[in-house]
Write a structure and sequence with these properties.
alpha/beta, seven-stranded mixed β-sheet, 10 helices
């Protein structure tokens, strides 16, 4: 017996709200997940069921909608997740950028769906170790969820969060608490990252061009039409030979001829790209 009444109609209304707001598709198999995530909001608002919560949401959109979206969005990440992407950046992409961008000395990366910050900080570690100090290296880190964005911006992590990092990485890039249970990202690593809240389906304030966009484990929640639109928009904001990385369970159809598939969910824009 569930604590709150949750009908199919309630689920459809929630799914429609989420899709219209941010393009995330909630299939019927997500009903249990939606129930557990939103039951907390219902308790917090002292409401009696999902129907009353939806009524409250409509009347108090400015007050509640962000919390509603934050509750639904999934945030699972870790430092240097999908390590082959970072190995490619280090061994293949950075040497090319050091040559192609040597006159401007400017490099721009975008972590689109940065979650709690492990991805952009992993990127910053990789770039900081490779580019000379006089280069203008910047990372844009965006997410829809304001809660995870706040955590990312704080740069605070538990010992469990940083478990996969080496002692050398921890000493170089983090400040350790006296009890060894908390780690704070050093200011030097944070300086090159700008954290911003962004709905990928709305207008983008940035102009680019970006040398690399990481949109990993984000488009898996979108339908084909939304994915295709997003890939087009990414192509428009990438540099001439820019790269786009997707998550391990994501892919791009062959109809996107402006990209070449490099394998392992890595794509490059431009007719001269090295395809497979």
């Amino acid at each position: 017996m569930k604590e709150f009444l949750f009908t199919d109609r309630d689920f459809k209304e929630i799914a429609d709200l989420v899709y219209n707001a941010c393009g995330i598709v909630l299939g019927e198999h997500k009903q249990e997940m939606v129930y557990s995530r939103l039951a907390r909001r219902i308790r917090e608002r002292n409401l009696v069921d999902f129907k009353s919560y939806l009524a409250f949401l409509k009347k108090n959109k400015d007050q509640e909608f962000d919390a509603f979206i934050n509750a639904i969005t999934t945030n699972l990440t870790s430092f240097f997740r999908e390590i082959h992407h970072f190995e490619f950046i280090k061994s293949e992409l950075i040497p090319v950028l050091l040559k192609t961008n040597k006159h401007s000395k400017r490099v721009r990366f975008w972590s689109a769906g940065c979650s709690t910050g492990e991805e952009p900080y992993s990127l910053a570690m990789t770039l900081n170790a490779a580019f000379p100090s006089d280069w203008d290296v910047k990372i844009l880190a965006t997410d829809l969820d304001s809660n995870v964005l706040a955590k990312a911006q704080s740069g605070m992590y538990t010992a469990a969060n940083v478990n996969g990092l080496s002692e050398q990485q921890l000493k170089r890039w983090f400040l350790k608490s006296k009890d060894g249970e908390a780690y704070k990202v050093k200011p030097k690593l944070q300086e090159c990252i700008a954290f911003k809240r962004l709905n990928l389906l709305q207008e983008w304030p940035m102009k680019g061009p970006f040398d690399l966009i990481l949109c990993r484990n984000v488009v898996i929640y979108f339908d084909k039409e939304t994915k295709d639109q997003l890939f087009e928009r990414y192509a428009n904001i990438l540099s001439e030979q820019g790269h786009l990385f997707l998550g391990h369970s994501e892919s791009m159809g062959k109809e996107h001829s402006q990209y070449k598939n490099l394998g392992k969910t890595m794509y490059q824009k431009g007719s001269n790209a090295r395809g497979i």
